[in-house]
Structure formats: C-alpha cells, structure tokens
Write a structure and sequence with these properties.
The protein is of the alpha+beta class and 238 residues long. The protein has one domain. Helices cover 32% and strands 25% of the residues. It is built from five helices and eleven strands, in the order βββαβββαβααβαβββ. It has helices at 32-72, 129-146, 166-171, 177-183, 197-200; strands spanning 4-9, 15-21, 24-25, 77-80, 93-96, 102-109, 152-159, 188-193, 202-209, 219-222, 228-230. The protein has an eight-stranded mixed beta sheet, sandwiched between helices. A three-stranded antiparallel beta sheet has the order 1-2-3, with no helix packed on it. Helix 2 runs parallel beside helix 4 (177-183). The chain is globular and about 40 Å long.
Amino acid sequence: MLLAEETRDIGPKMPLVLRSCGRSIGTLTVSRLATDVVSDDVVNCAIGRGKEKHLQSQQVIEHWIRLYNCLIGASYRVASWPCSDSSEGIVDVLYRDGRGPLIALEHTRIEIQPWETQAAGSMNGFGPPGIRQIGRTLEQGLRKLSAANADKRILLLESDSVAGSIEDQYARVRDEASVRSLRGGVDEIWGVLTAVLETENVIFTNRIDPGDDDERTLCSLNLITGEFWRLRPDSIPF
C-alpha cells in the first residue's frame, strides 16, 4: 500500500519522486550531480565508520596485550600493525617481548544475540543464523592466522555483551570440519569481554582453546588503577 508520495525539485527541472511503502523506497529520480553527491557522502561515511572500527579494534588489542602481560609476567609490545583493513587477509598485529618470540594476533568481534544463547538443535551449516555467522567469522580469522609468519598465533574473540558467553558460542562450532581443519594452524584462542570497558574501564579475558583445567586464565584488569585480578584455583567449587 502506498503510504506517502512526495515530489520536489533538485536542480532545474529534475523532480525527485519518493514513494515510501513501509521501509522501502520505490522510485528515486534525481540529477546525476545529486546522485554523485549522495554517493560520495555514503562512501565517506562508510570509510569513516571503517576507520573508527579499526581504531577501536587497535585499542582493544592494546588493552588485551597489557592484561596478557599481567597474566603471564611478560612485557610484550606491539611490533607492527600490518593490517589497516580487515578484508585484506593480513593479521591485525604482530608483537614481541624484547627479542623473544614474535606473536601474530587476529582480533575479531563476536556478536552474541540473547536469543541465540537459547537456540537448540541444528540447521544447515553451523546452525541458527547467529551461530553460522560466528562460524564464518572464526573461519576468516583462523585462515588469516594460519598464513601468518610468526612463532605463535593467537585468535582474540571479543564480545561486548553479557548475554551468553564466547566460550559457549565457540563450543558450538569448534567441531565443524571447516573450523577444525584451520584450528591446527593456530596456537591459542582467547576471549575478551569489553561489556564494562566504557563504564568501569575494566576488561576480562580467558583462554578458550586449549582450555586446561589446571591452569586458570580467567582474569581482569582495571585500565585506570592497574588493578589485576585472577581467578584462583582454590576459589572454584568442585
């Protein structure tokens, strides 16, 4: 059903006809100049969002390296940022501790929807849509890391949601053939939770794979005070 129709001029004798039905726009007739201007604005906006995401990713990586250093008692620093575009197929960062081993790290964000945490059963591929997306995201990150020239390769999975857990989502796709075949080229997979990063300046991390029961890696860091917390083995009920 036609909900609205508006006609106005953009440039001499160049009508713009908008027919909106729900969320869809039926017809747009504009001058070539106006189209170019709109296209440039869209491209510039997309570039701006891409740069903002890249900077946010770099900040999370730097915060995580700081937390990782606290956990293992090291002083790793960023050696280089090879990748400025996540679609290039190059890992995000290389870092090392003095003259120690070179570590390649790929950071990716996992979008966890509340309803996905309750989803059961299996559909085509990885299962429900959210789980399939996580599977594809894992494949991309694992593939980039497998090709990296480094002494150690780490995949860092970020979530900014308290709904569900990265561990649970990863457990649902790790045994898929496509993920399992690429997993051999990566040394470790870590989760980083940034849900309270903006409000409390605290990040949490935990090694997801391999997950050794005798080595507790769940920990957090207050980025302002430097307060480091680690889950003690004797605090876990058996």
